[in-house]
Design brief:
8-stranded mixed beta sheet; about 475 residues
């Protein structure tokens, strides 16, 4: 009897436990279902723009405002054709009136490859008192507010430049990706010349190099811009006005050395071959310098550079240095542009300095000859200067990229000793497509290169690779 009672109690206890566990399970499922429905309603109430905020920045997030005029646009639009991507880019070229040139209106197929032309608003109500200046500076400055007024959706950055500014779009996107577009950013660079910065400002983005404003900053600036312009009729240029109004908003310039004003003249080889350790974002003043490749026009030369850009945009102009043990050569590769071979070993800091192949922007005061980057004088004896090989062609295969550079200055009356680099006809460089991550952009490091053992005769072969825990030094 007692055994039956014990069995009955055990059964009741087991039944109670089962009921309790089932109840807890139902409650848990019910709570999880409520939590899911709550989170789903929260996501549904988030604006579409915010939901995509975590997506990587792309060309579709940029809007361009290009300053031009009805005369210069006819000649400089060929530069824009090289970098403008009609299916991916938005923006306008602002001119004071519609070009009436027959060549412009008859070239409809070509115009479809260009940014649309917008007519600037009338600026006659604004005063301009800078003696000897151009009041068109006011119209050009207002490209900022008029671009914002286009009211495009999904914008993260507004990018501004001149009609002779050549942008490198993928590198521009990658550079801007380092920054939070929801904060107030004013990104660009100043002049390479001390005198230009001294005259205008060391903290001003020079408009020809191009500059970028984050969306929230541009929206606020556009609201107050006209009232700000009224206070500064005495300023010279458009970029001075933009900089001053941003200063009134309390925003300073974030320097990015990949933008290039190019306030120099003549042969800019030395400057380009010693490019900073950052992606190339822009070039300016291309009609004021020599063509960057020999035996070409300025536009042909930039088009030739874009042959390399279209294969590996991020690696273009990135300088890599390696040392040849056998001949004691020092080799500097500025990928997609040129290779320099020095006949003896050079210390790395010396190779990284820009050779002064260029001339000053303005003659006169000593500050016009002071540059904001490290320079190096050319050797007085041309035969002691590095042998230069310019890009001939580049191609991309399944597992690597091959670029070939041919010697340019072989006509120098120099001895052709077998140990001298002038005996070389070409240099082949092997590499892989560069895809820098955000952390690599924030903490950049130079790549390494090796002289391949099967280099022989008139061909030197090199391989670019990521450096390990090693030094780039003379062996």
């Amino acid at each position: 009897m007692f055994a039956d009672m014990k069995t009955s109690k055990a059964s009741s206890s087991s039944c109670f436990i089962n009921i309790f566990l089932i109840s807890v399970s139902f409650c848990t499922i019910y709570l999880l279902l409520l939590l899911y429905l709550f989170r789903a309603s929260e996501v549904a109430n988030i604006p579409a723009s915010s939901q995509g905020a975590s997506a990587p920045t792309s060309l579709e997030h940029l809007v361009f405002g290009i300053a031009s005029n009805r005369v210069s646009w006819l000649d400089r639009k060929d530069y824009a054709k090289l970098w403008w991507k009609p299916q991916k880019m938005r923006g306008c070229v602002f001119v004071e009136s519609v070009p009436d040139n027959e060549r412009y209106h008859n070239d409809s197929s070509s115009n479809s490859l260009l940014p649309p032309v917008c007519i600037s608003e009338d600026t006659s109500r604004f005063r301009y008192t800078y003696r000897g200046g151009r009041r068109s500076a006011i119209r050009v400055a207002r490209v900022v507010s008029e671009t914002v007024a286009l009211n495009h959706s999904g914008v993260r950055w507004f990018v501004f430049g001149d009609d002779d500014t050549v942008f490198f779009p993928e590198n521009l996107v990658k550079t801007l990706s380092k920054y939070d577009h929801e904060l107030w950013y004013y990104i660009g660079t100043n002049s390479e010349i001390h005198g230009q910065n001294w005259a205008f400002s060391f903290d001003m983005a020079f408009g020809g190099a191009g500059f970028a404003l984050s969306y929230p900053l541009a929206k606020v600036l556009a609201k107050v811009f006209d009232s700000c312009l009224e206070r500064y009729p005495h300023l010279y240029g458009s970029d001075s006005r933009i900089y001053t109004c941003l200063a009134e908003l309390g925003v300073g310039l974030t320097h990015e050395p990949g933008f290039h004003q190019l306030d120099v003249k003549g042969n800019v080889f030395g400057l380009l071959a010693a490019h900073p350790l950052t992606p190339l974002v822009s070039l300016h003043h291309l009609d004021h310098i020599d063509p960057i490749f020999p035996n070409m026009t300025a536009k042909q030369a930039i088009a030739h550079l874009f042959e390399a850009v279209n294969i590996d945009s991020e690696r273009v102009l990135q300088q890599t240095v390696c040392y040849d043990r056998w001949f004691s050569w020092t080799i500097s590769v500025s990928w997609g542009y040129a290779v320099q071979v020095f006949e003896n070993h050079q210390f790395l800091p010396d190779v990284l300095r820009a050779h002064k192949t260029f001339r000053q922007w303005k003659k006169g005061h000593v500050v016009q000859e002071a540059y904001l980057f490290n320079t190096r004088e050319l050797h007085i004896d041309p035969c002691r200067r590095p042998t230069i090989f310019f890009l001939d062609r580049a191609s991309s295969g399944e597992d690597r990229i091959e670029s070939t550079y041919r010697q340019y200055n072989s006509s120098d009356n120099c001895s052709l000793d077998m140990g001298l680099p002038k005996k070389l006809a070409e240099v082949k460089v092997f590499s892989h497509k560069l895809d820098l991550k955000i952390k690599q952009l924030q903490a950049p490091r130079r790549y390494c290169c090796d002289v391949l053992p099967f280099s022989q005769g008139e061909v030197l072969q090199l391989a670019i690779r990521e450096c390990k825990e090693e030094l780039i030094h003379i062996h």
